[in-house]
Amino acid sequence: TFLRGDFQNASAHALSAALSIVENEDGNGAREISSFSHFLWGTLEENFKQQNKSCFILGASGETGKVLLQELLERNVFSKITLIGRRQLTFEGKAYENLVQEVVDFEKLDDHAVAFQGHDVGYCCLGTTRAKAGVEGFIRVDHDYVLKSAELAKAGGCTQFHLESSRGADKNSNFLYLKVKGQVEADIEALGFDRYAIYRPGVLLVDRQESRPGEWLARKFFGAFSAVYSTSMAIPIQAVAKAMVSNTLLQPEQKMEILENKDITSLGKRTGK
């Protein structure tokens, strides 16, 4: 029997394929192609929305997490959005009225397994820095907390997991930051999600509220540079959020994919919005 869910999945595959063909076309008719691309994205969003799916965000208080939440609310493709974090966040405006917030102790995540149950899609933007948390603290947050959360989400029925990682992530790297990022990527892949997407952005172009001098200078440099040239080193944080949401709507044939900075940049521009 060909059920409604099968039809929706088949439609998503077909639309994804059509979108790929349309957006790779060059030459004349650019305006018509752009219009049709916009139509396809709208159809994908409506198709996904009708499936009545729910999602959770880890790290919604961070820079990427905040922008990702805004993007999800604006595009309204999920019937329920849950924020999982160590503290309750305060929001103003009707757009946030239906948000669900689960406060957890990341040192005792097994005690909060229920917070990870019943979600279809998970987004992880959780992370800290060695300078802020020390070596052990950095590993605990960026590896242990992230992996345990993914394990609980998988056990709770989550089928699709989207991880914000970093350009250059490699479990065999001699650099601690890149090594930890690469290791958690691999460990989550081993969990066997039906769909697993890794995003490896470069320097995030955002005016961080508590920016360190080195970060601020890097953002200013890459921001000015990327305004003139396409760069694999930097990306606007809004593009990362748009890419994560847009990629959720697509139906790639592979279960696991890695999106490097240039891939994220391209997908972040393809929403037609």
TrEMBL record:
One Pfam family, short name: NAD_binding_10
Acetylation among keywords: yes
Keywords: Acetylation, Disulfide bond, NADP
One of the GO biological process terms: import into nucleus
MF (Gene Ontology): catalytic activity
Gene3D superfamilies assigned: NAD(P)-binding Rossmann-like Domain (3.40.50.720)
Residue ranges occupied by any NAD(P)-binding domain in the UniProt entry: 59-208
InterPro entries assigned: NAD(P)-bd_dom, NAD(P)-bd_dom_sf
This protein's GO CC annotations: cytoplasm
Domain of life where this protein originates: Eukaryota
Oligomer and partners: Monomer. Forms homodimers during oxidative stress. Interacts (via N-terminus) with elongation factor EEF1A1 (via middle-region); the interaction is direct and competes with EEF1A1 binding to guanyl-nucleotide exchange factor EEF1B2, thereby inhibiting GDP for GTP exchange and reactivation of EEF1A1. Interacts with nuclear transport receptors XPO4, IPO5/RANBP5, IPO7, IPO9 and KPNB1 as well as GCN1L1/GCN1 and LRPPRC probably through their HEAT repeats. Binds NCOA5/CIA.
PANTHER family recorded: OXIDOREDUCTASE HTATIP2
Protein name: Protein HTATIP2
Lineage: Eukaryota, Metazoa, Chordata, Craniata, Vertebrata
